[in-house]
Specification:
Length: about 375
């Protein structure tokens, strides 16, 4: 069966966003709606809140009469094929941006079966139902974790993939392979693998942001919760790495920039920007469709190109919130690498996308969200 066309105006294009109530999902819905797209969200709310969807409506004006049907929400799990089938039947979906996944590295070691089942089997179910409805445009939420301990920094898309150290990372790597094989088996597929570095920050409105359940695993939400008084002290995992201050270096990227990277990827898939040139050994340049839509597998890093240490982040957050934050040096965390940051040339040349916001702005927006919503969505109206 042929694939749907993306070589048409945004206003005529409907995007299915799985995990659309989550941190990156909500921000991507905002950018899609602001660019004119219609959006259908599927989310099982296992790690998110429907209040986040109301906030997306408030930001984008899709709570107004006449605008509401530009955004539809379905509470469903991607493993529920019958529910997916109903959703694809109810909406004329053109492309999928697939965020829905479990994402806690440590938890994935404890619960490999749950992670492989949810992330891998869930994606297979999604692809199968999508294919039955002739939808083969697929943007996948991948991760810099697929590079493992990178051969070099900045990490280009040419950098070889390495074995992930945990089941979560394995699911990302495996799904990249699976989606590539879908294209190899059927050249109508149009797949983009977006390898995220470390998304942080929040929408400047302060209405949506990161709201992890329980004690945060990641640095930024932890720091933000210390700043707001929910947690006592930041633990810095290791100060003896070969980096400028001994603490781990990562490429933090503003979630709004990251979200815009997805919108750029859709334009690229529609043949509206770029040359379609492959980006690295994992990419495949297929024969474009007659309407100019691309076919193949695109691979792009989404980062800023700037590495910041744990202490750089703590100090940037101190500037944002206007107070000193207590921190304590702890042992290294198992599986962590010293340093990773992205080379961003491919995304700039092909997608016409570059990150706009620096670390101070990321921390300022994160603090705005956290101080306006100290308990996240839990107490939101
Ligand atoms: N860190 C601390 N204290 C904390 C939490 C983290 O010092 O309480 C440090 C880590 O050791 C690391 C840095 O802060 O040096 C960033 O850690 P995060 O947990 O925020 O992010 P990671 O880089 O470990 O992981 C992120 C994503 C993963 C993804 C990985 C691959 O969360 O989903 O990047 O690049 F797989």
């Amino acid at each position: 069966m042929a694939n749907k066309s993306l070589a048409k105006p945004h206003e005529e294009t409907c995007i299915l966003v799985t995990g659309g109530a989550g941190f990156i999902g909500t921000h991507t819905c905002v950018e899609l709606l602001e660019q004119g797209y219609r959006v259908v969200v599927v989310d099982d709310l296992s790690n998110s809140s429907e209040k986040a969807i109301d906030r997306v409506r408030a930001i984008t004006g899709t709570d107004a009469p006449g605008q509401r049907d530009r955004l539809t929400f379905h509470e469903a799990n991607i493993l529920d094929r019958a529910a997916l089938d109903r959703i694809f039947s109810a909406h004329d979906i053109d492309a999928i941006i697939h965020f829905a996944a479990f994402k806690a590295v440590g938890e994935s070691v404890e619960k490999p079966l749950e992670y492989y089942w949810n992330n891998v089997a869930g994606t297979l179910a999604l692809c199968d139902v999508a294919r039955a409805h002739g939808v083969k445009n697929f943007v996948f939420s991948s991760s810099a974790t697929v590079y493992g301990e990178p051969d070099f920094v900045p990490i280009t898309e040419e950098c070889p993939k390495h074995e992930a150290t945990n089941p979560y990372g394995q699911t990302k790597s495996m799904l990249e392979r699976i989606l590539t094989d879908l294209y190899i088996g059927d050249n109508e597929w149009n797949v983009v693998l977006l390898r995220y570095f470390n998304p942080i920050g929040a929408h400047p409105s302060g209405l949506i942001g990161e709201d992890p359940k329980g004690i945060p695993n990641n640095l930024l939400p932890y720091v933000a919760q210390v700043a707001v008084g929910r947690l006592a002290c930041v633990g810095v995992f290791g100060d003896d790495y070969p980096t400028h201050d001994g603490t781990g270096v990562r490429d933090y990227i503003h979630v709004v920039d990251l979200a815009r990277g997805h919108v750029a990827a859709l334009d690229w898939m529609g043949g509206k920007v770029g040359t379609g040139a492959p980006s690295g050994p994992d990419a495949i340049q297929g024969q474009p469709a007659e309407d100019g839509s691309r076919r193949g597998v695109g691979v792009f890093n989404l980062g800023t190109g700037t590495g910041s240490s744990v202490l750089d982040v703590v100090h940037a957050f101190e500037r944002a919130c206007g107070k000193q934050l207590p921190y304590e040096i702890k042992p290294r965390r198992a599986g962590d690498i010293a340093e990773n940051y992205a080379a961003c040339e491919k995304a700039r040349e092909e997608l016409g996308w570059t990150a706009q916001y620096d670390l101070d702005r990321m921390c300022a927006d994160s603090w705005h969200w956290q101080s306006m919503n100290p308990e996240g969505y839990a107490t939101a109206q």
